[in-house]
Amino acid sequence: MAGIRWPPEDSEMLPPRPPTTADLFSDDDRSVAADSWSIKSEYGSTLDDEQRHVDAAEVLAGGNFAAAASDYSSDKDEPDASEVETSMLGFQSYWNASYAEDLVNFHEHGHAGEIWFGVEVMGTVATWTKNLCENMSQGRNVADDSNFKYESSEAFKDLSSCSVLDIGTGNGLLLQELAKQGFSDLTGTDYSEGAISLARNLAIRDGFPQISFLVDDVLETKLDRKFHVVMDKGTLDAIGLHPDGPVKRIMYWESVSNLVAPGGILVITSCNNTKDELLQEVENFNKRRRTAEELDQEAGSGPAVFAYLDHVRSYPTIMFGGVEGSRVCTVAFLRN
Ligand SMILES: C[S@@+](CC[C@H](N)C(=O)[O-])C[C@H]1O[C@@H](n2cnc3c(N)ncnc32)[C@H](O)[C@@H]1O
Questions:
Q1: Separation of 250 CA from ligand 1 center, angstroms?
Q2: How much of the chain exceeds pLDDT 90, in percent?
Q3: Mind listing the pLDDT tens digit for each residue in 250-296?
Q4: Domain count, the chain
Q5: Which residues have C-beta within 8 Å of that of residue 64, sequence separation ≥ 6?
Q6: pTM of the predicted model, to two decimals?
Q7: Minimal CA–CA distance to 107: which of 99, 97, 115, 116?
Q8: Would the N or C end of the chain have less CB density within 10 A of its end CB?
Q9: Quick one: which atom of ligand 1 is closest to the CA of 231?
Q10: Distance from Cα 213 to the centre of ligand 1, integer Å
């Protein structure tokens, strides 16, 4: 897998580069942390959840992932599921401890905690998403690729009727930004109870009591509702940093495809993946879905798949090894 690329450390808004598990965990600690991943305080594990994990592991073991990975046209080393870099940020125990500290800081000093990727990126993601949704609701062609046959979305008429879910919401500040842009049906989820408590406290303090927050693990989601817009800022990155990152990423796409309403969009902001890598990951997911559909004669309206819509172009770029790229990318995918 491509190396982990974190944003620069010169911005005071950005968290420091995370240590890797190899640096910080003894073997014993690692197995405790890994156990804490599978023992969910809120819901407990269900047979369905375990089955999803088994299914994703089978996809990897069956070579689909390896085959799909070899399709990468990136100039980087070919991704190898056995060489995924891991970090403490892949563990729920890390986030629980981190948000427990943030909550103390909030109560003692009123601090909001980390703004991942910085204030500017957060503002860009919010305004860019608003513009995209407005254009979609007004029937404009929002597709970057002129060959893509975009059919105007009837999913929502305006921002106030557009439901938004932010997965791995952390302190929930992105949802506050979206509220300022005119969205009103806003929900944030995170598997860390501390994050949800912090996000609720901040939303009330800052005058956004209408934003809903609930504890939910996106890989084993208990949400039975679909949303017009699903936001992810740094959550897929964190999920991919778990030692079982490749399996969990497969579970992620399965789960998220059930959370986005038909005609709705998924907006991912990542610093660990380039736009092209995300596009490839989506293509791999689509292939798996279509294959499963062919096998399932009973299936009716076709599998839920994603198509690339557009990406943010305004992030500053850097040159590295003769290649130009951004430290952060934000990409929108349309669900069929
Ligand atoms: C890098 S932080 C980003 C937080 C927030 N989105 C932001 O931009 O400030 C990653 C977040 O994802 C959450 N997270 C990681 N894995 C998750 C999962 N499986 N389900 C729900 N939340 C998860 C973590 O608790 C953490 O809040």
A1: 17
A2: 58
A3: 999 999 999 999 999 999 999 999 999 999 999 999 999 888 877 66
A4: 1
A5: 284, 287, 288
A6: 0.78
A7: 99
A8: C
A9: 6
A10: 13
Domain that holds residue 29: 21-335
Give the domain CATH number at 206: 3.40.50.150
Q: Which residue has the tokens 């060959």?
A: 147
Compute the distance from residue 131 Cα to the ligand 1 centre, in Å: 25
> Is residue 240 in a domain?
yes
d(CA 16, CA 22): 17
Tell me the pairing of strands 306-311 and 329-335.
antiparallel
The whole-number pLDDT of residue 294 equals 72
DSSP conformation letters of 211-247: -EEEE--GGG------EEEEEEESHHHHHHTSTTHHH
- Ligand 1 pocket: which of 117, 187, 190 to mutate (most atoms within 8 A of CB): 190
In a domain, residue 7? The reply is no
Q: Is residue 161 part of a domain?
A: yes
> Which residue's alpha carbon is at the smallest distance from atom 23 of ligand 1?
168
CA of 234 to the centre of ligand 1 (A): 6
Type of residue at 177: E
Question: pLDDT class for 319, splitting at 50, 70, 90?
Answer: confident
Q: Which one of 116, 235, 267, 272 would you pick to mutate in the ligand 1 pocket, going by the greatest count of ligand atoms within 8 A of its CB?
A: 235
